[in-house]
Amino acid sequence: MKQLKKNPRLFGLLAIVMGMATVTAADKTAPAPVKISSIFVMPAGTKDGRDPFFPESTRAFEAMMAATQTNRTAEITSLKVPGISGTAGNLLAIINNHTFAIGDEGDVITPAGKIHLKCLQIAPTYVVVEVNGTTHRINLGEQ
Predict the structure, then answer these.
(1) What per-residue string of b and e applies to 78-88 under the rule 16 or more CB within 10 Å gives b?
(2) Residues 14, 8 contacting (CB under 8 angstroms)
(3) What is the pLDDT of residues 7-54, one digit of tens each?
(4) In this predicted structure, what is the pLDDT of residue 71?
(5) Can you point out the beta strands (E) in the chain?
(6) At residue 125, what are phi and psi to the nearest 5 degrees?
(7) pLDDT (tens digit per residue) in 56-104
(8) What is the pLDDT of residue 72?
(9) How far apart are CA 11 and CA 128, in angstroms?
(10) Which residues are CB-contacts of 42 (< 8 A; sequence separation ≥ 6)?
(11) How far apart are CA 69 and CA 114, in angstroms?
């Protein structure tokens, strides 16, 4: 003890080492932290829950409504080709009042809602389109 009083640096070093020993001993004996998980269920509509800051807003439900609309099965029978025009090397097809060239993509309006399609081939009497990953042939003037 006399040497510690004579050399304060040695005393400080001893205090640091003792402090580290107690910290590491406390870490080893501490129980593992409990993991608490929160579960949040998105309400299906405004009757089930609302945004507390904007109670009249439907912004939270728009993503869910859009997902249900894109997952809807497209009704291919509602696609109509009333006309095909252009030159032999550059044909254009009118599908539900929207003009398409080969390779064009776009949305057309049908009684079931909008359908996104891609025009793959245009012949003088028919058009081949891709809707939701499947190809369909639509004949000219079919009702």
Answers:
(1) ebbbeebeeee
(2) no
(3) 666 666 666 666 655 555 445 566 777 777 777 777 777 777 777 788
(4) 41
(5) 83-87, 90-95, 98-100, 105-110, 113-122, 126-131, 134-139
(6) -120, -5
(7) 887 777 766 665 554 445 578 889 999 999 988 899 999 999 999 999 9
(8) 47
(9) 88
(10) 60, 64
(11) 9
In this prediction, residues 131-141 reach a mean pLDDT of 90
CA gap 94, 29 in Å, rounded:
76
Phi, psi dihedral angles at 31 (to 5 degrees): -70, 155
* DSSP 8-state code for residue 5: H
Residues 121, 127 contacting (CB under 8 angstroms): yes
Q: Which residues contact 103 (CB under 8 A, 6 or more apart)?
A: 118, 119, 120
Query: Which residues, listed in sequence order, are joined to residue 131 by a DSSP beta bridge?
Result: 134
Tokens encoding 59: 């912004």
What CATH architecture does domain 75-139 belong to? Roll (2.30)
> So where are the chain's domains?
75-139
pTM over cut 0.70: no
Residue 71, amino acid: N
- What is the pLDDT at residue 39? 76
